Amino acid sequence: MRIATLSNASAIHTRRWVECFRGFGHEVEVWSLEDGPAALGARRLPRAPLPGFLRYPLAVGALRRALEVYRPDLVDAHYVPNYGVMAALAGRHPFTITAWGSDLLVAGARDPLQRARARFALGRADLVLADAENLARAARALGAPAARTWAIPWGVEPARFSSLPPREPGLLFTSRMHEPLYDVPVVLEGAARVIERHPHARLVVAGDGPERARLERFAAERLPGRVEFVGLLPPAGIAEWLGRAEVYLSASRSDSTSISLLEAMAAGAIPVVSDLEGNREWVGERDGARLFAVGDAADLSRVLDEALDDPAWREAARARNRAVIAERGSWPRNMRRIEEHFLRLAASGSGR
């Protein structure tokens, strides 16, 4: 199968996706307005110095000409209001759109222009993929045909979590990016209250972003020597820290299926996460995790304290979470399900 993937070449999710389908034996070429790693081999589309709602449509002419030459069996677009719109405007079928969460749950909820663009693209797609039921519902509400919309989580690679280091009592770990959506200040404030009461506890913060300097200053003033910032980590580094951690923390204000949550579940780090619909598709309060109110550092502290004080519950939660990942959170198995959808569409021959 020959696939033309339209996506942000700099995003790790794009690289994982493309490498997976190439590993399945398909020919995959990537078109992007953003630069990516050389190994991805993305073909750069013209990027005008204009707002996104103009920048992406203006690149459609170049994309259409490229697709005429490449003649894909399937056009595979990621992130609804930009590359999804480009795929719809290019007019080549079959084409699929994969929503990434923030495109519909965050930006689409607050921006009428974003909603209009999403509605235009979703209504024209031959297949719409979402990684969670809440995201699939958002897509249907914006015009994605119900019969052509599927919720399939991407999942995690079990092999990454098969051999992990010994667990470190009291180690807390978070790996969300340092951006407003992920509310890392709530993680720091909530964890600080607990760390002050637990002499052996400490927090390791992975990730990066525009808020990092401010977060590091807060940690240095509030908890000197008890918080370590380790920056962006490769997948193996994330797995190692999660294997060592007692608890995984996330205060995200919006999520569909969080890959970070699934990684924590696979590694046995107990999730203490914000009470979001996307999280509740995988864990519940005292059912594999502890949940706290969005934006509430005091509530995070309360449930984190209770989780650290209950080793028997933690062991039961670890077993439960690993079983859930084995049942429905496997990246290789779920990506094969997506491949089956792609093959059925490609077999229709309408892309040539």
Structural features:
352 residues; alpha/beta; 7-stranded parallel sheet; 46% helix
Compact summary:
It contains 15 helices and 14 strands.
Descriptive report:
46% of the residues lie in helices and 17% in strands. By secondary structure, the protein is of the alpha/beta class. Helix 2 (52-58) runs parallel beside helix 4 (80-90), helix 8 packs parallel to helix 9 (212-222) and helix 8 crosses helix 13 (297-308). The radius of gyration is 21 Å and the shape is globular.
Blueprint (SSEs and pairs):
Blueprint: E1 2-6, H1 12-23, E2 27-32, E3 43-44, H2 52-58, H3 60-70, E4 74-78, H4 80-90, E5 95-98, H5 102-110, H6 112-122, E6 127-130, H7 133-141, E7 149-151, E8 171-174, H8 184-195, E9 202-206, H9 212-222, E10 227-231, H10 235-244, E11 247-250, H11 259-267, E12 270-274, H12 277-280, E13 284-285, E14 288-292, H13 297-308, H14 311-328, H15 331-347
Parallel strand pairs: 1-2, 1-4, 2-3, 4-5, 5-6, 6-7, 8-9, 8-11, 9-10, 11-12, 12-14, 13-14
Helix pairs in contact: 2-4, 3-4, 4-6, 5-6, 8-9, 8-13, 11-14
